Amino acid sequence: MRIGEVASAAGVSTRALRYYEQQQLIASSRSTGGQRLYTPDTVERVRWIQLLYAAGLSSRTIVEFLPCVHTGIAGPEMIARLRAERDRLDDHMRDLAATRARLDSVLAAAEFGAARPAGEAAGV
């Protein structure tokens, strides 16, 4: 399959496919004319890559995890790695929630200030 065919079938851009190849997530061969050629199973692999990216995994982690996708077997080390990734996301979500709470405080103060009649001093 040519790069455009894989991109269309997988719902990604050709640029994404070139990036995935650069990150060693997928592989291609070359035609005599130098065009990238992919095997038909590349489409399913790209769909998995998209899913794993959407789950917040880095390309480095995805490279490590993809063999488990194909075999259906994840060893203890990979399960530990995925749990660590989940914990990292949990920490990030807590940080984002704290940041949002601070922004809500700033917004509330700004709305309170905007609701005061013109010329009224703060704290009066």
TrEMBL record:
Keywords tagged on the record: DNA-binding
Name of the protein described by the UniProt record: MerR family transcriptional regulator
Pfam family, one: MerR_1
Residue span(s) of domain HTH merR-type: 1-68
